[in-house]
Amino acid sequence: MPAAAGITASIPSPDPSWSQFSLGPLTVHTYALCLLAAIALATYVTHRRLVARGADREVTLDVVFWAVPLGIVVARIYHVLTHLGDYTDGTGPWGYWEWVRVWDGGIAIYGALLGGALGVWIGCRRAGLRFWSFADALAPAMLAAQAVGRLGNYVNQELYGAPTTLPWGLEIDGAVAGHPDATLFHPIFLYEMLWNLLGVAVLLLVERLARRRGEVRADAVGEPGYGLRWGRLFALYLVWYGLGRSWLEAVRIDPTSNAPLGVPANIWTSLVAIALGVALFVVRARQHPEPETSVYLPGRGPGREPEPASTGSTAGSAGSTGSSAEEPTSAG
């Protein structure tokens, strides 16, 4: 598609044939490959961070086994419920084959967060990990994975914003309702990729500065450093991502999204994410001013099974496998 008149530069969209290819009798969707690459990246980074904090080398996959399927299912449900106009053909809610065609695009990151959080909670309980310890390890990995996943939106020619005359305007094949041919649009997918990658750098920098501050404090007063554990780094992730999505959604063209009070559903969810992140940071800081000594729940650890209640063991006897500041029944 040619660039708009007077525009000497633009971002061309990939040829529609790039969105899928045949492998024997199978049709492989590029969008799905981007999602798989994102999941693999998040798993790898989280694994490295957890192992560095004392976790068993097998435990990350144990949690991912639960988080990924639930994340995808709820992500699809969230997208469908916020874009019902795309999935209404008069055949009744259980006759919509389009509802499950996730490979054609149409999953929502906020739904993935909700479903993934449930999966992580289940996986962590089974593995004996602290939920919030896993979340802290996951936070920068999530942003990196989300950046990779947005490549799938580019290939599918989706996730774009209002018209623009900027030289990085995005070309879209075919007519976009309400806009003349050759119109260029804000590349929302690219903006979010850059925002997420910047967020990775910010979270890692803040984490390192907090650790160094703790080391200085330890040298000065003999107290161990606190760092950003107990869910506080994940809280910052929620704030960062919520801020980014709130302004990106404000310029996005998404006419089929539900808009309570005229505000797109994703903006409402972004505001909730920001508020939740702020509250989580404050509450967890007050609940756990002590350093996190283990990513495992009390009484649990590499190669250890839950201790029977009849043994009379207490959280305080868990030793290095967990901090007695958190009850065994806590999600961590």
TrEMBL record:
Pfam families: LGT. Residues 292-332 are annotated as: Disordered. Residues 308-325 have a biased composition (Low complexity). The chain crosses the membrane at residues 28-47, 59-81, 101-124, 131-149, 188-206, 226-243, 263-283. Pathway: Protein modification; lipoprotein biosynthesis (diacylglyceryl transfer). Its EC number is 2.5.1.145. Keywords: Cell membrane, Membrane, Transferase, Transmembrane, Transmembrane helix. A 1,2-diacyl-sn-glycero-3-phospho-(1'-sn-glycerol) binds at residue 150. The keyword Secreted does not apply. One of its GO terms (molecular function) is transferase activity. NCBIfam families: lgt (TIGR00544). Catalyzes the transfer of the diacylglyceryl group from phosphatidylglycerol to the sulfhydryl group of the N-terminal cysteine of a prolipoprotein, the first step in the formation of mature lipoproteins. Belongs to the Lgt family. This is Phosphatidylglycerol--prolipoprotein diacylglyceryl transferase. The lineage of its organism: Bacteria, Bacillati, Actinomycetota, Actinomycetes, Micrococcales.
